[in-house]
Amino acid sequence: MLHAGWDLSRRRLDYCLLDEQGARVEVAVSPPDADGLAGLVRGVERRHGPVAVRAAIESMNGARFVHDTLERCGWEVEVADAQKVKGLAPLECKTDRIDTWVLAELSRRELVPAIWLPGFEQRQERERARWRLFLMRKRSSLKHRVHAQLLAFGHTCPMTDLFGRKGRELLGRLDFPEPWRGGVLAAVGMIDDRDREIAAIDRELRALGADHRYVPLLMSVPGIAWVLGYTIAAEIGDIERFASPKKLVGYTGLCPRVYQSGNTDRRGQLTHAGPKYLRWALMEAATHACRHEAYRERYQHNKQRLGRQRGAKVAQVDIARRLAEAIWHMLTRNQPFAPAGATPALAA
After folding, report:
1. Considering its fold, how many domains does the chain have in total?
2. Which phi and psi angles does 245 have, rounded to 5°?
3. Burial, 172: exposed, middle or buried (Cβ in 10 Å; 0-12, 13-18, 19+)?
4. If you placed Cys at 319, which of 14, 127, 279, 286 could pair as Cys (CB 3.0 to 4.6 Å)?
5. pLDDT tier for residue 325 given thresholds of 50, 70 and 90
6. Do residue 258 and residue 230 come from a single domain?
7. How far apart are CA 4 and CA 102, in angstroms?
8. Is the pTM of this model over 0.85?
9. Cα–Cα distance measured from residue 234 to residue 15, given in angstroms and rounded to the nearest whole number
């Protein structure tokens, strides 16, 4: 068996091949496209015979394409966590060739810190939810820009919704000098385009979420409607890959860093590991869940205990972790939300 390490960049793919004893067999460069990868596989087979190859590549944009292409060619490929690779192999000198050798050596020693890769169907679910969030943020940015232009030229906004019917009439009457007036009108038109795109995605997500095995259960959680339910379900994937609620909470990145040495035990900032979209969805849900009777008392207690400056934020993160734990129990047991000690009406 040969062991390969890959380092992917925009225009090239460096690789290093090692044999079972760790000796370098081949060090070269390949184009990172489909034809280049297929030619590389044929070349390795021509030079070294029909030998099994195990490869490792760091997690980055494009690594999934390399993984899928080489696996279709019969190679065994793992995508390594880039941060954990740095921890396993700290180097004073770092080049592309050294990176490929390190990954090949980790593969030879079976020490690759491989990450879990979702299937194609789940990647589709994630992309739908993430694209909706991207459009929402773009729309919010455009609205903030319009409000800023009103403030810059001394115009007040007497209505709560500047982009409703009366707000549009107000924007049409306001006197802006050019090019600011043209910019405001263009921003309003772009907001309308984003509204139509978001509405189309909403209809698609509603239809897909109705048939999803997790979304109906997640919608029973306080603070989670169908949008957050679909996002959380897509980001979690198969709940069976998390052995305990703590594993799922750790995956969300909402746990503080831990520094322990002897009698010293300190907690740092949040790890922010895992997908940021899952953290966003849980924090959005926690914003509403902190007013629910199942979590209100805990939220208020932590908020008052930690003080005005940081109490509300930390208490909200605590509720988000509690929601993640509840979600693990719900999805593993296939049961709706029912907190400990809940009344029959609450559990219904």
Report:
1. 3
2. -60, -35
3. exposed
4. 286
5. very high
6. yes
7. 10
8. no
9. 33
The number of residues in the chain equals 348
Q: How many CB atoms lie within 10 A of CB 130?
A: 16
Q: How do residues 20-43 score in pLDDT, each as one tens digit?
A: 999 999 999 999 999 999 999 999
Domain membership of residue 86 as a residue range: 2-108
Nearest to 4 by CA among 115, 116, 99, 113: 99
C-alpha to C-alpha distance for 16 and 336, rounded to whole angstroms: 50
Domain final residue pick, 108, 141, 165: 108
Rounded Cα gap, residues 19 and 4, in angstroms: 9
Give domain status of residue 218, yes or no: no
C-alpha to C-alpha distance for 309 and 311, rounded to whole angstroms: 6
Quote the distance between the C-alpha of residue 85 and its chain's center: 20
Q: Count other Cβ atoms within 10 Å, centred on residue 143.
A: 16
Please check whether residue 328 is in contact with residue 239, taking contact to mean a CB–CB distance below 8 angstroms.
yes
What pLDDT does residue 165 have?
87
Q: Amino acid identity of 81?
A: D
Task: Evaluate whether residue 202 is within a structural domain.
Answer: yes
β-pairing verdict for 264-270 and 53-58: unpaired
Do residues 341 and 238 share a domain?
A: yes
Measured CA to CA, the distance from residue 323 to residue 337 in angstroms comes to 10
Q: Looking at the chain, which runs of residues are DSSP E strands?
A: 2-8, 13-18, 24-30, 53-58, 76-80, 256-261, 264-270
Beta-bridge partners for 258 = 267
